[in-house]
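Job type: complex structure
Entries:
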Amino acid sequence: DAGITQSPRHKVTETGTPVTLRCHQTENHRYMYWYRQDPGHGLRLIHYSYGVKDTDKGEVSDGYSVSRSKTEDFLLTLESATSSQTSVYFCATTWDGSYTFGSGTRLTVV
Amino acid sequence: AQKVTQAQTEISVVEKEDVTLDCVYETRDTTYYLFWYKQPPSGELVFLIRRNSFDEQNEISGRYSWNFQKSTSSFNFTITASQVVDSAVYFCALSGPTGANSKLTFGKGITLSVRP
């Protein structure tokens, strides 16, 4: 188990406010990912990182930014939250092709 | 680009029935990995299996079995003698070779309900 912790686990926020979700891993894995899960869509990749300060966009990156200043932390920021960003967010890591997922963050934008 | 299709969206069976969950994938990579994950009502993602593209042997683990066929680009999952605890959403997923292209692409999931 890669020891992935997501925080917060639940959050309710208002439209237009900034929100940052945190993913913390303890295994020094190089690759980290942010996914969102929505009914009827499965999990879709938002952004991913292949090293400190090295990030790239996934298929649903609009409205999101990420930062990775340390190997262990991968932050996902919604600059101005919208109702369409209400979702469950999962962080994941991999180093040998096996993926480990965090427990998820349920975000509600009202 | 990678794509995973799970054409079935919801399946309902009675306990002890066998059920097969279908997965069809598309990729241009010659080396790739296929996965199945289970998501119970509690919400966490539970890893079930990873299969690499060079290993077409079928896999059996207890009541679970997987049929990988490169000729049809399919990686189907069968639960034998289903139980109520098998009720969950099941995702098939695909990744390229390890390295910078190592991104996991998911299907939309299949909701399995097993009735007593």
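Summary: The CA atoms of residues 22 and 75 of chain A lie 5 Å apart. The interface with chain B takes residues 31, 33, 35, 40-45, 48, 50, 58, 88, 90, 92, 94, 96-101, 103-104 of chain A (CB under 8 Å).
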